[in-house]
Amino acid sequence: MASQQPPPSQHNTTPSQQPHINTADDERGRLASDAASSATTPSDPIKYPGTVLINVQGAFIEVETPELPRTPGGTVHDYHHDTSDIVLPNHKAVVSHIAVDIGGSLAKLVYFSHEHKSLEAGGRLNFLKFETDKIDSCIDFMRQLKLRHEQLNGHPPPGRPGGELCIMATGGGAFKFYDRIKDALGVEVLREDEMECLIIGLDFFINEIPNEVFTYSEESPMSFRPRPDPADPLSPSIYPYLLVNIGSGVSMIKVLGPRNFTRVGGTSLGGGTLWGLLSLLTGARNFDEMLKSAESGDNTAVDMLVGDIYGSGYGKIGLKSSTIASSFGKVYRMKREAEREAEDGGGLANGDRKHGRSGDEEEDHGKDGGDTRTFKAEDISRSLLYAVSNNIGQIAYLHAEKHGLEHIYFGGSFIGGHRQTMNTLSYAIKFWSKGEKQAYFLRHEGYLGSVGAFLKRQPPNWGRRNSLDAGAGMGNVLERIGSRT
């Protein structure tokens, strides 16, 4: 009997045109005229941490970020710079810390840099990721950031501790590589709770960054969700919600309010599963290569559909003919048919293998990509992507239904802005909930933990509008920071 999996679009699709997003020049022109009437700012930049708040007033996502980060060190092949920096045109103070979220597969790095080495021009948050297997490259990059920080800012004067660069670390690697990072950099390394950082980071993106959160469908690829307005008493609360964080594994977290959260479940079938199986089956060498391969694949060459069983849909129970009945369900039958034809002297059915190849050639092929001779690597990639995504989507729905949560946010590097992944997850939530629940995605989905760790640097509530805590030592220096223009 067919397993009831939601039927994502089974064939190749052409990306729909995305809505216009303001470029850096568009935003800077608008912000320049708005700045004069903006919220009160300090008369002098506050240089050292412990008394500095991130000013998110006028923040926007730059869609044409330079390919390489504006810092020395590292090689092009050691990291990937996500070209969606967050520009902070009104933050002029020095930031003396960087943050890293080290997971089982990837290390995600966030740091602040000033524009053109000028405090008056504001700055930006930069986003980079390294494979965890190359953690030494990540550490070397942080070493270069430390050297640059010292060149630009020197050392703090006596009585003003904290000016030295500090590393805010989270994820399992914050513990596994703690000694290595501290010994290599010679700086303070603060380890922060992973789940707490995820929630802080997500709340920050939802509340503070425009054009960050969106819904996805093939008909409307990016429909941005407006930010909540704290000044409007009728503005709906963002709570409660379910965060589904998809890294090497998957964690599902019920969030009832700021720092009020519980991990309610998860699954071991996550990004690490996809990465591991595809590396065995296709010979792909990195995660981005695997996702790119899936874009051109046709999973119907590998998966068994409802239509393959019934000849049409099964309307009585709501299954379309394109619904996946069994992931990789065609593999065994087609492989057996190919073997029989080969034994009869007909070669493999699809002509990928010809008679007369030596055993050595067969062995070499197996080493490169496993025994996938009858199937294309692209089709295998797409099928496995759907299998993992469908599984995550269904489990996410079940947890949301159990706990009465309407909004479901998907984060983690597994998504990577990949449209097939988002479409599958979104469709799964819509399918299982009969349209009653909504899946949300983020443009910086892989950096929730690292941004949360970045924001945990003192004082409390760093980076939030109207966030001066009593006793923070700021007095009336900032009446309002990070408010909207």
From TrEMBL:
Listed SUPFAM superfamilies: Actin-like ATPase domain
Extent of Polar residues compositional bias: 10-21
Start and end residues of each stretch annotated as Disordered: 1-47, 339-374
GO molecular function: ATP binding; pantothenate kinase activity
GO biological process assignments: coenzyme A biosynthetic process
Compositional bias of kind Basic and acidic residues: 351-374
NCBIfam families: panK_eukar
Protein name: Pantothenate kinase
Annotated source species: Aulographum hederae CBS 113979
Taxonomic lineage from the root: Eukaryota, Fungi, Dikarya, Ascomycota, Pezizomycotina
